[in-house]
Amino acid sequence: MEWYRNDKAAVAEALSRGERPDLATTMASGPLDELVALHEELGIFALVEELEVQRARAGVADELLLRTLATLPFVEQASLSGASETLFREPAVLLQLGWAPVQIRQGSNGRHRHPEGRQEESLPCHPDTLRDALRRVGESA
């Protein structure tokens, strides 16, 4: 993956050659986007993907949940619930982590906090799903 910092010319040039950039974000990308890109570049997410979990989860892939969990320390919230709510409001970062646009728009696991199910403001993934993923990682990891 290549990171173009506010370089519209490089993206336009790649598109003219028929190449699709891995990710294009708006000018509003900030420190969170940059930290995620840096961790991708340094191979941190590749290490996270090597973690073994005690059991596989149906629905959202563990690899995606672990990448998401690895991002939460970058978010300025004290709790896992608050940090995940903040992160799940950042579609450009979620795309960078591997969430598909349909998962971001429609949700991924059917767990929503509203008694009537999915609402317009529902998160792509319930914070409890992330909490469960963290519990499945062994202490030695």
Taken in chain order, the helices and strands follow as: HHHHHHHH
**Helix vs. strand class:** mainly alpha
Look at the structure and give the mean pLDDT. 77
Strand content bin: under 5%
Specify the helix fraction band.
40-55%
**Largest beta-sheet characterization:** none
> How far is the N terminus from the C terminus?
26 Å
What does this structure look like?
- The chain is mainly alpha-helical and 141 residues long.
- The protein has one domain (8-135).
- The protein has helices at 8-16, 31-42, 44-49, 62-71, 80-87, 91-97, 101-106, 127-135.
- Helix 4 crosses helix 8 (127-135).
- The longest helix has 12 residues, at 31-42.
- The chain is globular and about 45 Å long.
- The protein starts with 7 loop residues before the first helix and ends in a 6-residue tail after the last helix.
- The model has no long low-confidence stretch (mean pLDDT 77).
SSE inventory with pairings:
Blueprint: H1 8-16, H2 31-42, H3 44-49, H4 62-71, H5 80-87, H6 91-97, H7 101-106, H8 127-135
Helix pairs in contact: 2-6, 4-8, 5-8
